[in-house]
Amino acid sequence: MMKKKIRLVAADSQPLILEGIRRMVASQADLEMVGGAADGRELLRLVKKLKPDLVLLDLSMPNLDGLEALPLLKEALPTVGVVVLSTHDKETYVQQTLAAGALGYVLKTDSDARVLEALRLTAAGQYFISPSLREEVIKTYLNSTGREEVPETSAYDTLTAREQQVFRLVVGGRISREIAATLGISPRTVEKHRANIIRKLEVRDTSAMIRYAIKVGVVDPDLWDH
């Protein structure tokens, strides 16, 4: 009996990279690419429709970047394994994506063999971080032991999961109507979440939210260069 293939949806704003992923996967007997998306909204639609085993996710995408899309992916399909494939090699991205539910993080400079290894391990429920990033990530975690609590980060951690989603979308430039459509809630509920965010973080407006987000490393200006 033939073993069931691992079904993959890939998302990247660059068609050449998507095509490269498609060719890489096509040569593997145990993997099958069932869909490709060029932006976050299309990715969410495909994941809900196709229910893949894995998502290979770029961070820099229009219409929901990877950091915005990741928690929504896990909400729509909790069983999906997510591997981030990115040019961003800062350990803060690794921390944020793992915290949001990703199991793997590889760089676009990594070999096909490395990416395939990450996909297979993630499909088996295991974590995989690109070797070039591991040392920096481990060093950061070790150095953080015994540090004093950072008030700004603590305030962000008081936000609910939904409030954090709304926060990311607001600082990403989305208006309430767009956020409501993305999250499947009413604009009035978005405004309630926004009011709670302003109260908890003690920020007055969207500009202050953006400054706060950059300060605590929740988002990075590099991700807005769509």
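^ that was protein a. below is b, sequence first then the tokens
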Amino acid sequence: MGDTITLKSAADGYELSAYHEAPFTPRKGGVIVLQEIFGIDKYVRADVERWAKAGYEAVAPSLFDRRERGFTAGHDADGMAAGIAHARATPLEQALADIAAARDFLAPRGKVCVVGYCYGGSLAWLSAAKVEGIAAASSYYGSMVKANAELPLACPIIVHLGHTDPGIKADEVEAAVKAAHPEVPVYVYEGAGHGFNNESPERYHEEAADLARLRTRELFESV
């Protein structure tokens, strides 16, 4: 059973909330789970639990707390609008500092990896470049990956994209990443769209989600 904890950002001293779950099995390390624009909703909490069952201490920082504490939103037009507004109004360096606070919480007990989805997928890529002390990262369908593909990376990372994602051109992202970092695996899942890891009925693609999770676990266990 997960619980809510408090993380303190070293950048500004702000105390943000985070959803946390201890590993169900002998601890393999820590995983920071980075949210979609919908906040720490039931799908993020379910992902935290999945990582805990896989043997990781998992933490999902609530990255919009400064704007709306405990924000969650539905996957409808109003929820999309609210989430996009929060994401656009949250400085990237602030979000990365909050991710660093989660790293600081987990690091005393072993390696720290990062996995992120949508908004969090972009932040996972940026974390691999800009947040020290990350062992590995897995980025799912992040809209900012292409524009930041040339950033130097400080840890191993893999990228997951849905081939039918209408908002992110998988072929273009793959080309940009491969041009800058030919060593980075970019996986494009046929038949999967945006948010395919999210178990909401309108987005979930079970085959793609299972394979991407396997690849992510293999990466995290290899570092």
